Amino acid sequence: MQTLTYKYKVYKQNRNHERRLQEWFRTAAWIYNHAIALHKRYYRIYHKSISVYRLQSHLLKLRKSTYSQWKAIGSQSVQQICERINNGYKNFFNRTAKHLPTFKNWRKYRSVTFKQAGYTLNGNVLTVNALKLRLKFHLSRSIDGKVQTLSIKRDAAGDYWIIIAVRRNEESSARKPMTGKTAGFDFGMKHFLTQDNGTRIESPLALFNHLDELRRKSRNLSRKKKGSNGRNKAKLSLARLHRKISNIREDFQWKTAIRIVSEYDVICLETLNMKAMQKVWGRKVNDLSFTSFVSKLSWLCAKYGKKFVQINKWEASSKTCSSCGYRAEKMPLNIRKWTCPECGTHHDRDINAAKNILRVGTSTPGRDSINPAMQVAADDARISLL
Question: Global pTM?
């Protein structure tokens, strides 16, 4: 089975619908904060965490008896809120999250999830049963698969989105035709990707190109009086700009990843030390967003049956000659071109690294500890025997 997610934008609502949706999210935030308070109180008294099932049962009792306003949130949505908090605690204790779940302002609580009930989906119209509210959305593509969960999300710019997670058979997903081609790619700060054949892919640098506008809008927001309508408008304007920057980056990465997967059967990349790179280049690394691109590329390779290989991050791809296997002791970042002292080959740093990445990645797919120089020596020995 394969899990896919569809995201659709809800059409602009009138003032009455907008007010009801805001009150609905306020109620969901109320339940969330009440559950967080119960977690903290239970641990303070019993020195252990409350189970998710006990918390769900308690909140559903409160929903029926004490807090009638909570009935606007379906019972399964309340259960999902408890599961979200429980997962937050698990991630913290498993060291995959930095902070424990904590209280949220209702303005920052931005999603409500349905499981199998609480809504009716008819074409491009979603009806929230508890509110008897109809939300019409832009059905940009048809939903293929069995719906597992459905979420209504509000972004920082005040727009609403419908996110539908479906499961479908892997056989139903399309397969890309096999081309028999392989390619190695090297990430770079100057060029987003450099291929082993010399082709370079440039990043749109969405953040860098909108940095002046971003600073101007941020200064405008800081000058507004807190709680004023002018501050709310400035905040929305800044949020829309952030969303525009994110959309430009996402569009570029998806289109690039789809084009690479369509052209090549085996795709080889290096493993980057992102924490070290962020310490040196900071904002530039966040603008390029290498990790996000790698996740998209690996997902597409798995979807379309292509081979995705990442070599060990300690491989000296830039310092190793792709022709003879000679390895230089040092290769500072300011050296962009160099000549091998052994064979005399003149190298472009990025193209040479991409060739070595391809050689290591295709030598033994699935293993990432092959030295390029050792591979060259093995190839030479095999040729001499023949």
Answer: 0.83
